[in-house]
Specification:
alpha+beta; 15 helices; elongated; binds histidyl-adenosine monophosphate
Amino acid sequence: MNQTLQSVRGMNDLLPDEAEFWELFEDTVRSWLKAYGYRPIRMPIVEPTPLFKRAIGEVTDIVEKEMYSFTDSLNGEQLTLRPEGTAGCVRALIQHNLAAQQVRRLYYMGQMFRHERPQKGRYRQFHQVGVETFGLVGPDIDAELILMGARLWDDLGLDGIELQINSLGQPEERAQHRAALVAYFEQYSDLLDEDARRRLYTNPLRILDSKNPQLQEMCAGAPKLIDYLGVESLAHFEGVQRILCDAGLPYTVNPRLVRGLDYYNLTVFEWVTDRLGAQGTVCAGGRYDGLVEQLGGKPTPACGFAMGIERLVALIRDSGGTPAPVAPDVYLVHQGTEAARFAFRVAEGLRDQGVNVLLHCGGGSFKSQMKKADASGATFAVVIGDDEAATAEAQLKPLREGQGAQRKLKVSELAAAIAGQLIDSEIIDEQE
Ligand code: HAM
């Protein structure tokens, strides 16, 4: 039997209603990024697997179990669908020597792939807006990146997104903390779950991130990284907090915030909402000063974040936000052979003058075409029969109330008449 093909589990189509919503979201995001001086970069969706292993870390959920990796059948190269954008962005920065060209503020938007268990807000193909800065030591840029988030929530009309921050210090401070953590958890090794036991000697910090309720109490009593931070790391963290306080932005210091990727140091942050169930982090990031050098570039401090578009769009919908419907100005109805040929010219001519036209295709009776015109949401129908085609005229028929009666016009007068009436109706709409 012929089974209907479906999209891959956890990878969703965006149908026009949803996709229009996304485009409005992306428009807002692009103007917000411009306001902060960010420039776009687009990286490939497929990268060499070692890039992610080296950048994200071998002992992370992403690298251990979530990457879509495959072997190139022609040359045997190990490739991976990107699970995140930072690694590829840093690779591109090094490959094209962007830091030397003072290109320091970059953003990207696009698909990411992680083989996670799909649920609300968690998908196998999802989309991020990522923002990365290079060459700036902070803490000013760290704070600016955080404040950017606050402004975007405002621009999108979203509230209830809370900020959590933490400092992961520097590698040597983390090493001391790590030794203390291992010693602490070793006392309780019988009580650790399988995941935690596996991580004890590879990545004990991630045990603190465990979702297992039985480990929560043990984790609460574990040595805190903040107590191992040196003077400079503390000053950096205080610097970030001072700017946030000056800006009047509320935040919580969450010592358990450790992030699931290994490249971070110093400032890390997450924006979290309780309105999306378990997958409440809409945006996350931090500083990653070692990554550029680790991937073969010159030492370059860096900081950035990425947000999950699916989660943000769900929040906008949840808070009642709806994009303006995208309807054509004109639905062009035509009947007759000459009329059909003429209609093409009329449609292109109107578009030349800035009118959005949906040209009827596929024939059908006048009545059925008018039904389609109504359903399209267009403001006007322009109706052309063979008689009109012969005299270069058309009927302009308003499809909404209050826009006067149907009139016959010269085709050359159509665009001005439509523009005039569109403006009139906008004024009336505003007065209502
Ligand atoms: P991340 O925390 O792995 O960080 O992902 C950032 C955001 O992507 C999450 O907060 C969430 O909103 C969204 N996200 C992640 N996984 C999924 C999923 N399976 N389904 C839906 N949304 C998801 C990064 O990716 C870092 N590259 C962020 C960064 C940029 N740090 C510095 N620069």
